# Entry
Amino acid sequence: MAEPSPHPRRWYILGVLVVSLLVVVLDNTVLNVAMRTIADPHQGLGATHSELEWAINSYTLVFAGLLFTWGVIGDRVGRKRILMLGLTLFGLASLISAYAQTPEQLIWARAFMGVGGAAVMPQTLSIITNVFDERERGRAIGIWAGSVGLAIAIGPIVGGALLTRFWWGSVFLINVPIIVIGLIAMVFIVPESRNPRPGRLDPLGVLLSIAGLVSFVYGIIEAGQRSSVAHPEVYLPLLGGAAILVAFFVHEARSDHPSLDVRLFRDPRFAASAGAVGLIFFAMAGSLFIMTFYLQSVRGYTPLEAGLLSIPVAVAQLTVSPISSSLVRRFGARAVCGTGLSMVSLALLSYAVVTQVDSPIWWLEVAFFVMGVGMAMTMPPTTESIMSAVPREKAGAASAVQNIVRQVSTAIGVAVLGSVVSISYRGSMADSLSAVPAPLREHAGESIEGTMALAGRLGAAGRALVEPAREAYVAAMHITAVCAGVIAALGVVVVLIWLPGRRRAAASDAEPGSRREPAKV
# Structure
């Protein structure tokens, strides 16, 4: 049966959807550059290292847990309607976040933002899949995926510019006018669409996934705080979270309406692409989290200067993302994704060399550019592989799976690599803080911001802590960079083994009905 004709306003629709997506993705990267300010007890909320991790992860975990549910609701009641509802909720939560008075309030407001963001993300990709035909869908998805990478790149610049003139809450308040403009454009441009055979909701799966992930991530963050896995508040949440997640996967495998369709992973192309996305975001999210403190606390750059230093990533995204689909047609998804992931891995590993206390900053700029090119070569083809592995009516489920993988990997990456930094930093600072009274020592040793805050309170006596703190953070960052680089390198292995090459992909696409096979699983 022939596919429906492409929508006559499809490129205008894509523009509106990209703006909607940008505001959701941009928020996390804008927050990255504001973390040091939020940690400051005078300019911000005095948030601890673990509270900053939760400010990121409360959003990503709720987002991941509700993605499929919102995708199913959109398939049932209308994707445009749910997209507009999600943007409205996101805007309200942004307003609450901007005026949070304590770290706890910010964490809960960010979780509310996750509810709205989860409603937005799957609808954008589902609508794109429905308004474009097969000939143009790869290019459209490439632009969509490129906008994700672009948001990651320009977020720190936007955040830095806002923090130069306004208070930390402005990084959330900026979302509101953009969302209002997006909603108005959506009313007149974006068409409504539904799945003629929508799925059923899976409330038990949603509860199990959120409970398991929150418990597991809590254990990881606690391990970083306590520098041990032997404490009951570490191993009990880890074991409990793992058990709940096992129960979740068993439930999903048996359910005829799962919130995470694990059966889709039987397709090697789908599984390899999702695995590559997960590994790259695990490594990227954790490295971006720690890079903020390196640039601002170790090197002394302002938020705006730190944001401007990410321009090479943005330039790489803008240059390479639009041509990624043509590279895939010429060389195959395996070669392009494998090369891209290799570049990301090398860039992350290079942080162990280029990020010294006084190293030339242009070294880091080169690493940023290489990383941006690698991401631009990886995200569009993996997204296209995921979406092309399922029939059009399953677009919502495939989009949800891809974004669940991305968000869960982000949360766990921030928790794991953030804990690695915390453990290493605390160990390196133990001798320097030995003369500090015990009640102050614990908070000061958790992060470089804690140490700098203590040094400021101690005045002249605290100056002796500044240089050891910088050196300790750089040493901790090098360990974390190696871990992140190795994780990204695992993605290369996954892609080279399971993602089809150019000849195999061409042969598969030439088989009648090959694109519809996963629907029978």
